[in-house]
Design brief:
globular; five-stranded parallel beta sheet; 28 strands; 3 domains; Rossmann fold; 16 helices; five-stranded antiparallel beta sheet; GMP Synthetase, Chain A, domain 3; alpha/beta
Length: about 525
């Protein structure tokens, strides 16, 4: 049974992302404040933003960037990130956004896989970036800095900076872009399997989800939105950044989630619309610091990136005296497919209904049959599968993974198990996929398992998620030691921590004599997930 959004389809313009967001600016829009640096207080109006985007596009084109070239953007949230992101798109390039916590090896892997020909970063990240670009074979002349600071690194090299490039005043190039096929963004996601893959999102994909979300997220020009969730993540990129720009609201950028800064910005800037992940919801609800700030300006909170518990959602809405919505999405969906409705007719523990232009179904993973709604109560469980204009074009240079995720009839397998409620609302109950969600970040178990097996005293290992109220899930490793080895849990944690980004660290280590596997050799992860915590010995 194929289900649809209760809302009518919306018209999707055949334009580029730049044309959608900046093509119809009037005099009033140009004067409106688009961006505020939450740390320094610097502001950028919509007119100044559009002009800077055009100039950066012109500077890139003058330096040889061609339509279709991939540019890596590795920087925390700031007004300059926005200029760079949209300037690359304006020049006809494709942006592959890079997690700011990545190690040089992780960055280099993404640069090579994406085929990036330019690398844009900030001074504090330059040493890491230089190690990565050297490994990936990118010349120093193709490294650009947003902030003009070299952080004391590689003083023999002179890196071009965003301020100097904008000062050249070059016009944006005339480029021919087919929104339906031209890649706008290439974020990396582990999808339903362990290895991170480039998710090919066209201009049409991003535009579709911006327009779909407009009908379910009631932002206005009066909105002030703290942008603390990272723009390099699809949630921050297309929901928070692009969605707010489309509504002509004001974004207050913050480079990282620091509770004191977040609360200060909400209070001092009288923020009205919050986008959060569940760990932020926990802090806003339970941390004593939250009660020391005036948060009365907030009228709406939207939670995404990981499941939000119903009781926590209701407690946060009550604490702030506002409406709370929960959304569901994934990078491959640009990202939103479902959202709880504004009328409060269904539980905030659900993900509500599909956004406009989206079809979905639940499919029994054992039988392959579609799950029908129940006469009353909850339906049987099935994998949530989604079809719509926001569904990715596929995984970059990975036809096998694409075929496993995108079905011939256009439905995308989310890897999430769900049930239908009495009103047709959707409840996500479990995951088919092995991906761990730590504070909204994706942690691929396969990557950590491969790393653990490089340790000379480890003969087998498996990593699963362990439920945690604050983080969502903690990476929990079950390790089989080499006979006679005296390896400790702390030594395992240290070994992993030195080789991966902070969110991928193993937080719990359990030693076991054997990793349980089926007759076919498949790891029985469900058995491990249900085990109580041991003493780590």
């Amino acid at each position: 049974m194929i289900l649809r959004s209760p809302l009518p389809d919306v018209d999707l313009p055949d334009v580029t992302v730049y044309e959608l967001l900046f093509g119809a600016l009037d005099d009033g829009d140009r004067e409106r404040v688009a961006l505020v640096d939450g740390i320094t207080g610097r502001t950028l109006s919509y007119g100044e933003l559009a002009e800077s985007v055009d100039r950066f596009a012109g500077a890139l084109a003058a330096r040889g960037l061609r339509p279709g070239d991939v540019v890596a953007l590795n920087a925390p949230n700031s007004p300059e990130f926005v200029v760079a992101f949209h300037g690359i798109l304006r020049a006809g390039g494709t942006v592959t956004t890079v997690n700011v916590l990545y190690t040089p090896d992780e960055i280099a892997t993404q640069l090579r896989d994406a085929g990036a020909v330019r690398y844009v970063t900030v001074g504090p990240l330059l040493p890491t970036g230089l190690a990565a670009t050297a490994e990936a074979g990118l010349p120093a002349a193709h490294v650009y800095l947003l902030d003009g600071a070299d952080n004391g690194a590689a003083k023999k090299e002179t890196y071009e900076t965003l301020p100097a490039m904008l000062a050249e005043g070059l016009p944006a190039p005339a480029v021919a872009i087919d929104p339906a096929t031209h890649l706008a963004a290439l974020p990396y996601s582990s999808g339903t399997t362990g290895r991170a893959k480039g998710v090919m999102l066209t201009h049409a994909n991003l535009i579709a989800n911006i327009c779909q979300n407009e009908k379910v997220l009631p932002q206005t020009t009066a909105e002030t939105v703290p942008a603390v969730l990272p723009f390099f993540h699809i949630y921050g990129m297309n929901v928070i950044l692009n969605g707010t720009l489309k509504a002509r609201g004001t974004l207050i950028t913050l480079p990282r989630f620091d509770l004191a800064d977040f609360l200060r910005v909400i209070q001092d800037r009288r923020c009205t619309f919050l986008y959060v992940a569940p760990p932020m919801a926990v802090a806003l609800t339970k941390h004593p610091l939250a009660r020391e700030h005036d948060l009365s300006s907030v009228r709406m909170v939207v939670s995404g990136a990981a499941p939000l518990d119903e009781a926590l959602g209701e407690a946060l809405a009550d604490r702030l005296g506002c409406r709370l919505l929960q959304g569901f999405g994934m990078t491959e969906l640009s990202p939103v497919s479902h959202l709880t409705p504004l009328d409060g007719s269904v539980s905030v523990g659900s993900i509500g209904f599909a956004v406009p232009n989206v079809e979905y179904r639940l499919v029994d993973p054992e039988t392959g049959r579609e799950v029908a709604p129940a006469a009353d109560g909850l339906s049987a469980t099935g994998e949530l599968q989604v079809r719509g204009p926001n569904v990715m074009a596929g995984y970059l240079a990975d036809p096998e993974a694409t075929a496993a995720t995108l079905l011939p009839d256009g439905f995308l397998r989310t890897g999430d198990l769900a049930r239908l409620g009495p009103r047709g609302e959707v409840y996500v109950v479990d995951r088919l996929k092995e991906l761990i969600k730590y504070k909204g970040y994706q942690v691929p178990p396969a990557e950590l398992e491969a790393l653990l097996l490089t340790h000379p005293e480890i003969v087998d290992a498996v990593v699963v998620g362990y439920p945690d109220e604050a983080a969502g899930e903690l990476p929990r490793a079950f390790v089989v030691r080499r006979p006679g080895a005296a390896l400790t849990a702390d030594e395992v944690k240290t070994f992993v921590a030195g080789r991966v980004a902070p969110h991928k660290k193993v937080r719990i280590v359990e030693f076991t004599d054997v990793v349980p596997k089926s007759a076919s050799g498949k790891i029985l992860r469900k058995e491990l997930r249900s085990l109580p915590l041991g003493d780590g010995s």
